[in-house]
Amino acid sequence: MGAVGVMKKSDFNLHFDFAFGNYHHTEFEKWFADMAASVFDTDFESIKAGGIHGDKKSDGRRISTETIYQCYAPESPRTFAENAKAKILDSFPDVISYWPNLKEWVFVHNNVAGLPTSASDALEELRKQYPSIRIFAPSPRRFLKDNFHDKLTLQQLIDIYPSASMNFMNVTMADIRPLLRRVMNHRSTVSVNALDFGDLPDEAKIDFNSLSPDAKFNLQRARPHVDVVERYLTGMNNPQNASKIQAQMRSKYEEAKDMEYNSDEILGELIQFVGGSTVPAENAAAYVIVTYFFDACDIFENVPDDALC
Questions:
Q1: Alpha-carbon dihedral angle through residues 91, 92, 95, 100, given to the nearest 10 degrees
Q2: Domains of the chain by start residue, with CATH
Q3: Long-range contacts, stretch 247-250, CB < 8 angstroms, 24+ apart
Q4: Beta pairing partners, 70
Q5: Which residue of 40, 136, 137, 274 lies most exposed, with the fewest beta carbons within 10 A?
């Protein structure tokens, strides 16, 4: 992917696919509302939960068409199949009471296979009870991409997928070197054994540390480029300097952990520590460095052996 100035809208398809496949519950709702607000502008109201009425059974309203959107995005197709019918039938009576001028109700979901028969029957039952209201649950991926994602301007796409501005393909030794020197020269108050870091992790480590989908995505995007860090560390004239950098990273991790930050906050602290900034190139380089030490088991917690059985 090129720099922000030369990005193409097609560059963001990868980010759409990731969001659609990995966002659930409130993350999915926010993603949908952000896209809808960008497409419809002042014609869209994003409904936030609050007070005794919660979100009034709505994840957004298009004013001009009196359309209410309700999202349902559980973690698995099995959960969707088991609960979609109840979600539809339990929600709709309240929707009518909150929005008496309702003309259209759209059930926005994340199940690629579509609706199970029970949920489809529930929708048909509602259509018979409320013939004046258009009620439907469109094919989710196509609906979201055609009607929202693909209608966004380039700047709107950048706003919705801010990490897209990080170009990991362009991370070079020139980007990595000054950031690692910065880490090496940092004075730590925490004593850490630089050689006591465990075994190499597997993919389960990301899930075990409860990182958000966005954090996982950025670590996964950075992973193919960690060889730049490896080349720098192995090429250092003084091998003790590599151990010092390793210890500094572990020390900063332990410091953030002691502050009781959650996993995403710890990741942010580490990105900032190594030199991440608002400059996309620097941020991409910082992610590559942090990913290297994540994979080397110097930061974050490894999956216990008994959890692998």
A1: -160
A2: 4-159 (3.40.1350), 166-308 (no CATH)
A3: 247/188, 247/192, 247/193, 247/194, 248/183, 248/184, 248/186, 248/188, 249/183, 249/274, 249/290, 249/293, 249/298, 249/299, 250/192, 250/194, 250/197, 250/298, 250/299
A4: 107
A5: 136
Q: What pLDDT is stored for residue 200 in this prediction?
A: 38
CA distance 79 to 211: 22
Tens of pLDDT along 64-87?
A: 999 999 999 999 999 999 999 999
Question: According to the 3-state scheme, what is the secondary structure of 62-125?
Answer: ECCCCEEEEEECCCCHHHHHHHHHHHHHHHHHHHHHHCCCCCEEEEEECCCCCCCHHHHHHHHH
CA angle 50, 55, 58 (to 5 degrees): 165
Tell me the pLDDT band of 2, cut-offs 50, 70 and 90.
very low
- Where do we find the tokens 């991790």? 253
Predicted local confidence at residue 309, as pLDDT: 34
- How many H-runs (helices) and E-runs (strands) does the chain carry? 13, 5
The average confidence (pLDDT) of the chain is 86
Phi/psi at 211 (5° precision): -75, 150
Task: Read off the amino acid at residue 214.
Answer: D
Smallest Cα–Cα separation from 302: which of 240, 247, 226, 250?
250
